[in-house]
Amino acid sequence: MNIYFFYIIISILGLSIMLGLYRLIRGPTAPDRAVALDALTNITTALLVLIAVLSARFIYLDVALVYAILAFIGVVAIARYLEGGL
Amino acid sequence: MMGELLDYIGMFFVLTGSLFFLFGTIGLVRMPDLYNRMQASTKTTTLGVLSFLIGVGFMELEWFIKLIIIALFVVLTAPVGASALARASYRHGVKLWKKSVVDKYGEGKDD
Amino acid sequence: MEGKPSFTYVAIAMLVIWLGLTYSPSMPFEMFLQEFGAGVVVAVFISALTSKNFTGLGLRYFHPRRVAYFIAFFFIFLKEMVKANLNMARIVLSPSLPVKPGIVEIKTGLKQPSAKLLLGNAITLTPGTMTLDYSGDRAYIHWVEVKSEDVDKAGDIIKGSFEKLLRGVFQ
Predict the structure, then answer these.
(1) Nearest Cα residue to C110 out of C73, C60, C159
(2) pLDDT by residue (tens digit) across A14-36?
(3) How far is A19 from chain B (nearest CA, A)?
(4) Beta strands C102-107 and C129-135, pairing class
(5) Which residues of C touch A59 (CB under 8 A)?
(6) Number of DSSP helices (H) and strands (E) in chain A, helices first
(7) A34-71 pLDDT, tens per residue?
(8) In contact, C118 and B79? CB cutoff 8 Å
(9) Is B29 exposed, middle or buried (0-12, 13-18, 19+ CB in 10 A)?
(10) How many CB pairs under 8 A join B and C?
(11) Chains that contact C by 3+ CB pairs under 8 Å?
């Protein structure tokens, strides 16, 4: 695996996370922040898989899977809260 | 030889996935209101995860099944979460952008 | 809701999911047997508790015609998803931001909740549209570039061939 390729990928993902964090901090309303968080969790799932590849550990994929499940539950919980049903 | 070819295919998919992440977050910053932001970020990051995981699967062929399970899970749940969040924020009182042309959802139920 | 939920189907589905999650490459055969045994115990336990909460779809949904429709649906869905993303990338990167958003209402002829869920997911991930809410046979869709405000015309544009394919799967 070419290490420079990983530098490129990590800089693109880092730039995306910066932009997502901008919206997370700036976002005028609470739902805006929730949307930014939703996008950031997807990027984090990809980053966890990238870490699994870099350290060559199959078991780290389970971390990404559990993170994806918890992120989904979190988004639905935030939605229920905003709707006033929680 | 074969392994190298698969590596290049995997790198292509991984690069495509991360570029879609970048487009999604650019949309998140540039779009004028919540619903448009949600459209931009949900669609692009979902395809981004799918493409990224498939690319990693081409690099490490033994991991393919597990990666497909994670990707399927994300593709199935991301639109459900987005719909729930969109409806919740509409009921929470987030207004549409002032240049929106039509709002059939609000016409049906006046509080 | 149709058909009654079946303990056996739920248990088999749980077992398959369990094996998919605990599978690892270079796993010795004895370890696979252990995982399989533990999976049987867990699957029977979970489905004894929860099988009444699942909709029973039954074996007739594995008819070859339905499976063929589903595979066609899946590939058209993937193609539309790539198209949607290129479209979104074009909108996001163009300096003038060509959006004309609005919420339109469309009608669907699908009855089953699972068919509606698949249609809603497909609409959310295809070009410029996002499902907001269902009420009865009406769906409310947020659209980035509104092309038509009419219920039927907007429905034709938004649903594309998905509804036809899903009707093939579920009826």
Answers:
(1) C159
(2) 999 999 999 889 878 888 888 89
(3) 6
(4) unpaired
(5) 24
(6) 3, 0
(7) 889 888 999 999 999 999 888 888 888 889 999 999 99
(8) no
(9) middle
(10) 126
(11) A, B
